[in-house]
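Problem: given the chain below (282 residues), write out its structure.
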Amino acid sequence: MENQEALRQLVREKYGKIAEQTTDRCCGPACGCGPEEAPSDYTVFAEDYTQLAGYNPDADLKLGCGLPTEYAKLQPGQTVVDLGSGAGNDCFIARSVVGETGRVIGLDMTEPMIAKAQANAAKLGFTNVEFVLGEIEAMPLPDQTADVVVSNCVMNLVPDKEKAFAETFRILKPGGHFSISDVVLKGDLPDGLQREAELYAGCVTGAIDKDAYLGLIEKVGFTNIQVQKDREIVLPDELLKNYLSDEELAHYRQSDLGIYSVTVYAERPAEAKSCCGPDCCN
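Solution.
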């Protein structure tokens, strides 16, 4: 439990620093600005948002690893919850689809990110986009809040992923669904990467095996689980040399290990309707 809280605090600190940056390029310890920092560069994971409706450059900190809103089957009037909403990028894109009659809620555990997202929403004049401070493993949201949940490269940062998916199940309405982009593994990371806390905040060591990841989703009750997108991520040698010797790096390159960005879809089953007609009630 103490180790889990230490990881949460690490994430708060790293993402808090990123939120407070004023330049376009991420320059916190998680992104790398010089030899004294651990360069886990998020641009390795990020995809291009710039052509999507609702895109706002002030909200794009290039911290994602996919485009979950593109696969989330959003409809006008829906309520969408974005887990790990950062500066609001995915929220604003979702809002462009759900429209004035919809509602978008961003959840983030980092106060500077919440402040940045709220400022961005105010500048855009959105009254149906809100941001809530809280942890994904214990969301301060009522049961059955959302029609759709999205998340972008955040679940890998959560120490207790099973609880996070159980909470996602709880806040979804029966018949609702999620589309989550995340980083997963095929194979085992080298010891040097597994031990490095800085890389936890950089989406690498927090990732788990793809099959185990999908198994957790099924375990908490989700159905119709689909991998909507699967993209291999190749980490540059310049990053890996900070954690691996030349011999370890050569072995890593020759191994079967793969680091992937996946976008996963799953549904909360609709609740069975009670039958009270003459054919089913005694």
